[in-house]
Design goal:
This protein is mainly alpha-helical and 699 residues long. The protein has helices at residues 8-21, 52-66, 70-80, 88-105, 108-128, 133-140, 156-159, 162-179, 185-204, 211-217, 240-249, 254-263, 268-278, 283-297, 390-400, 403-412, 423-426, 447-464, 468-478, 482-485, 487-503, 507-524, 529-536, 544-550, 553-567, 574-593, 605-609, 617-628, 644-647, 662-672, 676-685, 690-698, and strands at residues 25-26, 218-222, 279-281, 334-335, 340-342, 348-350, 365-366, 415-416. Helix 1 (8-21) packs across helix 14 (283-297) and helix 18 (447-464) packs antiparallel against helix 25. It is globular and about 95 Å long. It comes from Punica granatum.
Length: 699
């Protein structure tokens, strides 16, 4: 799982789209065109940047219902979605919950208000809401007699606070579809991949390297469907292929899939979105993961670089000095404020100017951070990660070079702002900058950590531009032993240097690089002989297009970033681990299902797998193993070593189903309630005859 190649540039685009859609970043600086996310070529658009306000309204209504403030929720519905209240089925459920909440307060005036609610609202709705509504109305009257604490009463279920969350989940599903307030694409993709990952690991009996993250991120609770329970006796006017695809993709019963398609008026992709968004994520934890990834990739400013005149805190400040020095949050986020900083609970904290700072620079406020970069300056049992001595001085001297270029690159990074306008989630962040879903241990606030971080980002930037010679020189000056322990990375960088020289027509220098570096490295590692031969072919066809196709610079720069980061004690973000593992199990799952995922293009999963690298595919895979796995004990039933084109086309793995009619496969699946793979295996035993399969099993 850990060695699965991922197109990190595609993930960057998805993550930036998510952060922008949720207003998590300050978008005053234009995002690089390489991070733009074009609309998908699918029947429905998943663009979410224009639906932020609708999602915010949905969350506010949900929180009001969960808190028992039904009247406030109804008022917001009247303001933003009045047509929903025209549905008496929904209005009846809301009024019934409002009646219970009024009784729950226990005051005489609230009891009178509950009776008035019965007369004016609940009773009229019960007459034509749905067939069972009037019986429910008579049943709810028992709440006048039985106390809310009586667990044995006939209305104990109505008194339960769980009812609040059920009605809140239902309204969230209805509002989402009504307002088209679907979650950002990345959020849905993550839900889908994690759910498949968990199902695959459970079915195959393999251990997951990200089980702890998955259990915390993807909640077990699922919102009720937007389709209210009704009886449909007529035959569904939908293709059975669509019904089965939806049922298996989001773990629905066949009838549940039919109801969902009916609600979406037969639109398979819209029904898929509705069902996928019912699965709930831990939003603060997701924000943590996204922020950590953005900082690591250089998309968001880490806050390492302090404004001019503000001293760097190399040691923890004493209590008496707390008000006279600028404070850094645990993720190095530093924001210049105008004289005051505000904690997460809304309390204003007075600040003072430091004597060493300029007059126009005030003390920074302590941000309520959702995520932290996990930097361990001196990891245990990693002697090579020490930042003391020559390593640190070499990093500092390397950073002194091209300072203006680095300042320009930092200027392109965005500022993380968090969910400052979403009080429902901002309240889950504590005043010390941590949250319920903190992922990382406390980090260092020293200047060496900032230097290391900037050095890694600079090497990544140089590698992504194809400046391989400069990368090798800088890394060797930082640590002469680095490439001795990472020969595959050195081989890849020398490949880039060789191809660049060929492209400029300097064949003599290119051959010197091949003789002095590529040849000796390939002689020590036979796996590099094939990439070496393919590299030398560039001498025959030195066209720019061929060279561009042969240079997976994005993948190489990411592998280099991870390897150097680990060398310096900088852990890769946990989101990268999640994506590697889930994309691997996505491949394996659809190999078992013997079909292609109908939704992978909609969710951009195919682009995440598209690491077209004809020359360096095997070397990149080996590099990922070397730089990303450290003592992993994950057991899998099949190998993940495969070419990029295989990962995006699971149908190529097995064409068994091509010999059987699709209707035969679906018939066996439906009659025997079997997964697709099991149905195909049974058909294989009976020459593809569905009737024979069913007869034999029922005989």
């Amino acid at each position: 799982m850990e060695s699965t190649p991922v197109n990190w540039e595609s993930l960057d685009a998805l993550v930036v789209d998510f952060a922008r859609s949720e207003n998590l970043i300050d978008d005053s600086v234009a995002v690089s065109s390489t991070l733009s996310l074009s609309p998908p070529s699918t029947p429905c658009s998943l663009s979410s940047s224009s639906t932020y306000q609708s999602r915010l309204i949905n969350r506010q209504i949900r929180r009001s219902l969960e808190a028992g403030d039904v009247e406030a929720a109804i008022e917001m519905l009247r303001s933003h979605a009045p047509s929903i209240l025209e549905d008496h089925r929904i209005l009846f459920r809301l009024q019934k919950q409002k009646f219970i909440e009024l009784l729950r307060r226990g005051k005489p005036e609230d009891r009178h208000a509950a009776i008035e609610c019965l007369r004016t609202s609940l009773a009229p709705c019960a007459l034509d809401a749905y067939p069972e509504a009037y019986e429910e109305f008579k049943h709810i009257l028992l709440a006048f007699i039985y106390d809310k604490d009586d667990q044995n009463s006939p209305v104990a279920n109505e008194w339960s606070e769980r009812k609040r969350f059920e009605i809140a989940g239902l309204m969230s599903s209805v509002l989402r579809a009504h307002l088209h307030a679907y979650d950002p694409l990345f959020s849905m993709t993550l839900r889908y991949l994690i759910s498949i990952h968990k199902e695959y690991c459970f079915r195959q009996g393999v251990s997951s390297p990200i089980s702890d993250l998955n259990e915390r991120l993807l909640l077990e609770e699922r919102d009720p469907p937007a389709t209210l329970q009704e009886s449909f006796y007529e035959a569904p006017p939908f293709d059975e292929v669509d019904i089965q695809a939806l049922a298996h993709a989001v773990e629905l019963t066949r009838q549940g899939a039919i109801d969902s398609l009916r609600f979406a008026k037969g639109d398979l992709f819209l029904a898929f979105q509705n069902e996928l968004c019912r699965t709930r994520l831990d939003i603060p934890m997701l924000d943590n993961l996204v922020r950590e990834y953005c900082v690591y990739r250089g998309i968001v400013d880490s806050g390492f670089t302090l404004p001019a005149g503000i001293p760097i805190i190399s040691e923890p400040t004493k209590a008496g000095q707390a008000e006279s020095l600028p404070s850094l949050s645990r993720d190095y986020s530093l924001e210049v404020d105008s004289g005051a900083s505000r904690s997460s609970d809304g309390e204003t904290i007075s600040t003072h100017k430091d004597s060493c700072c300029n007059d126009d620079v005030n003390v920074a406020k302590l941000q309520s951070s959702d995520a932290e970069l996990r930097y361990a300056c001196e990891p245990a049992n990693h002697e090579i990660c020490s930042t003391s001595g020559s390593h640190q001085s070499c990093i500092s001297s390397s950073l002194q070079k091209n300072r203006s270029r680095r300042a320009g690159e930092r200027g392109k990074r965005k500022r993380w702002r968090g969910r400052s306008d979403d009080l429902s989630y901002a309240s889950e962040v504590f005043c010390d900058g941590s949250s319920k879903s903190d992922l990382c241990p406390a980090t260092s606030k020293t200047k060496p950590a900032a230097d290391k971080y900037e050095f890694v980002l600079e090497m990544k930037e140089l590698a992504s531009r194809g400046m391989a010679a400069e990368v090798v020189e800088e890394v060797n000056s930082m640590d002469p032993d680095f490439f001795k322990q990472n020969p595959v990375l050195l081989f890849q960088l020398k490949q880039v240097q060789f191809l660049n020289l060929v492209n400029t027509g300097d064949h003599a220098s290119a051959l010197r690089v091949a003789c002095s570096h590529l040849g000796p490295l390939a002689a020590k590692d036979p796996a590099l002989l094939k990439p070496l031969k393919e590299t030398l072919l560039a001498l025959i066809q030195p066209t720019e297009e061929a060279l561009v196709r042969s240079l997976p610079l994005d993948a190489l720069s990411t592998s280099l970033q991870v390897a150097i980061g680990r060398r310096l004690g900088i852990e890769e973000p946990q989101l990268m681990k999640i994506m590697r593992a889930t994309l691997h199990t996505h491949n394996e799952w659809f190999k078992l299902q013997m079909c292609k995922d109908r939704f992978e293009s909609l969710l951009r999963i195919d682009s995440l797998k598209d690491v077209s690298s004809p020359m360096l595919a095997c070397a990149l895979s080996k590099s990922n193993v070397d730089s990303c796995t450290h003592g992993s004990s994950v057991v899998t039933t099949s190998s993940s070593g495969r070419a990029a084109e295989d990962s995006s086309s699971p149908a190529q793995v097995s064409s068994t189903d091509a010999f059987y009619d699709e209707s035969a496969i679906l018939k066996v699946m439906e009659f025997l309630a079997l997964p697709r793979a099991d149905a195909i295996h049974l058909l294989a035993q009976y020459n593809g005859n569905a009737e024979t399969v069913i007869e034999q099993l029922f005989a």
